[in-house]
Structures are given as C-alpha cells and as structure tokens.
Amino acid sequence: MASQAASTVSPVPSLREVAIEWGRIGCIGFGGPPAHISLLRGLCVERRGWIRDEEFERAIAATSMLPGPASTQMSIWCAWRLRGTAGALVGGACFIVPGLVLILALAAAFLASSPPDWLRGAGAGAGAAVAAVAVQAGFGLAPPVWRRSSPHERRRAVAYAVAGGAAAALVGPWLVLVLIACGLVELMWRGAARVAHAHGWPLILAAAGSTGGLGALCWTAFKVGALAFGGGFVIIPLMQGDAVHQYHWMTSGQFVNAVALGQVTPGPVTHTVAAVGYAAAGVGGGLLAALVAFAPSFAFILIGADRFDRMLRNPRFRAFLGGAAPAAIGAIIGSAVPLTRSLGETWQYFVLAAAAVWLLALRRGVVSVLLVAGLAGAVAALVGAPLPR
C-alpha cells in the first residue's frame, strides 16, 4: 500500500538504494535533528520526488509528538513510506548503524582504563560544554510548545516545566514518573481521558530495573527510547541518575564525555545510550542498550504510521503531550545543574562559560562548540592542567 502510493509520485527505490541513501545520511548526519530532517527532505522530497512535501510535513508533526528520537522516526517513516516494513527496517538500521559503530569505538577509547592525557583532556573539555548545550536544546524546543498552547494552558505548561526541571536537578532516576505524572495531570485537567485506565507498565519496568544488571540497563535504555518526551536531549536527565548515581556504571566526568560523543558523532544523540551500555557491560552492553532504545521508534512507525492523521487529531494524545512535553523541556534545562556539578576542575568552568556565549549569545552550532571545547581540553592537558579523575 505504501509502495503504490509512492509510485504515483516517482519510481519506488529498491531496498539496495534505500540502504545506500539512508546509510549515507547516517554517515554525514552531523548536527542533530534539523540536519537529519534537511537531508531526508532533500533526498525524498526535493531531489527524487518520492514523497510529497505536505505528506512529509504531516509526518514531521506526528513524529515530533511521539516520545523518542524524532529524526530517527522520520528516517524510519520515509523508508516505510517507500518500501513498507522491509524498507523501514533496512532504512532505519542503515541510518542508525554508522553512528553507533563510531560511538562504540570512541567509548572504548575514552573509557579505557588508562587513556592518554590528551584524550582525557579532550573529553573533559567537550564534556564541560555539555551543560550549555542542554540549556540551548531546551530553549530551542520551547517556542513550538508555547505557540500551540492557549493562554490558560501556558500557565500550566510553565508549572510542568518547573516540575521537570526540579526533578532533573534533584531526583534524576525517577524523572520519568514526573513526566508521566505531568501528562496525566493535563489529561485530567482537560477531561480528555478516563484516568482509571492509565497503564502501570512504567512502574513494572522500573521495578525490574531496580534489580540491577542487564535488567537495569534495559530499563534505562527503554526510558530513552519510549519515554523521552520532548526530543532526544531529554535522554540526559533520564540516564544520568541511573548511569552515575544509582548503578555507578560511569563517573560524572565519563557521563558528560558520553553525552559529548553523542553530539559530535553523526546520527541521533540517542546513540549516547550505547556509550552508557558499553560502560555497564562492554560492547555487548552497548549493542543491547542501542537495541532497546531504538526498538520503540521502529514499533511506533510500523504500528502507527498509517494512523498519524488520527493521532494528530486525538484529544487524549494531545492532552497528555500538553503536560509531558513542557515537563521534558524543563528537565532538559534542569539537567544543566547536575552536569555543571559534575565538572571537577576550574578551567572547565571557563570552557563552559565560553560555550554558553558561543551557543546562547552568538547562536553558533553545537558540533563546532564541542570540537573547539575538546581541542581546548586537549591543549590544557598537554600544558599540564589538572584533569578530572
């Protein structure tokens, strides 16, 4: 059915062509979701005419409302639209795998027992800028949520954002419950759902994760993939409490390094979960974490893509998102607090201040600031500056 619809626009690509083109985007997709969406639009709408522009725009609107990495879901949707289930699996995998391989290789280098000082310095420098990146990401997500809210809803949205920010700063491991609670409160406020039918599966999964081991890793990865309302960067507060404080897979410094790696590698920032998985259980842990984190994106598209129009009109879904999304944005901004606390050396605060000016005042790109911060950290290490333990 998807193939027949696509054929009215332009000849349908083969699975081999999907693999090549989506793999190319996975290799050159630096810069986060805006860059990924631009590359997908250029390929599918502008150059090849495989998908109509209005259909592409509706898919963007729908995936932006789903939890998890929106640009990954768009890459899966575009491939599904052209080649059905097989296309979704091939295209989504080819988009994800290049960055996944790279971040696992980098994680192995940065998390080695005795990496060279210049490499530790580069990680410390790039990691120092991550708090500024989080603030920029949060403020970047806020305007669309604000515009689609009524004046009365905006007051509640601010309250949800404050709750999310406080949760990210104070009770990181339980942040997901705050996000869900904000969604349910808005659902009740608008009278859009019967709360008695709210599901308890997040609590069940959280209980499984509390046992530690691979169950905990799967719970952490699942939160990243299925409960990250508000965009990819909300994974930071969802993971930090588990990875650093509850299960001690990484130090605070190693975690901010992992976030920086997720930003400078191509593909979705959700790849950061693979670095956390590597710290927890080696290469197998990294692959398992990535599989669990990205599986919901495939499920959302394969199960719900042909229902996007109904989803966009569904008052219950929109009401829940009206509470969860502002809370997630607040959580992204609030994550800057523990990220800043994790810095161990004075020179890192100067790097953070410079990164904040670069991103928030000069409005420059994230990848460039992380690369410059990493270079500054490497130079600092080479001239004998103290490095975080």
The computed structural class is mainly alpha
Report, as a whole number of angstroms, the end-to-end distance: 56 Å
Please tell me the overall pLDDT: 86
Unreliable residue runs: 1-9, 195-201
Helix count, DSSP H or I runs of 4 or more residues: 19
Q: What assembly state would you assign to the polypeptide chains in this entry? A: single chain
- Strand segment tally: 0
> In this structure, how is the largest beta sheet organized?
none
Strand content: under 5%
Count of all domains: 2
What is the CA-atom radius of gyration, in angstroms? 20 Å
Q: N-to-C SSE series?
A: HHHHHHHHHHHHHHHHHHH
Level of helix content? Answer: over 70%
**What is the overall silhouette?**
globular
Walk me through what this model shows:
The protein is an all-alpha fold. It has two domains: 2-98, no CATH class; 100-382, no CATH class. The chain is built from 19 helices and no strands. It has helices at residues 2-7, 15-28, 33-47, 53-65, 70-110, 117-128, 130-147, 151-170, 175-189, 201-209, 213-226, 235-246, 252-264, 272-304, 308-313, 315-334, 336-341, 346-361, 366-382. The protein is globular and about 60 Å long. The relative contact order is 0.17. Mean pLDDT is 86; it is low at 1-9 and 195-201.
Topology:
Layout: H1 2-7, H2 15-28, H3 33-47, H4 53-65, H5 70-110, H6 117-128, H7 130-147, H8 151-170, H9 175-189, H10 201-209, H11 213-226, H12 235-246, H13 252-264, H14 272-304, H15 308-313, H16 315-334, H17 336-341, H18 346-361, H19 366-382
Helix pairs in contact: 2-3, 2-5, 3-5, 4-5, 5-13, 5-14, 6-13, 6-19, 7-16, 7-18, 8-9, 8-16, 9-16, 10-11, 11-12, 11-14, 13-14, 18-19
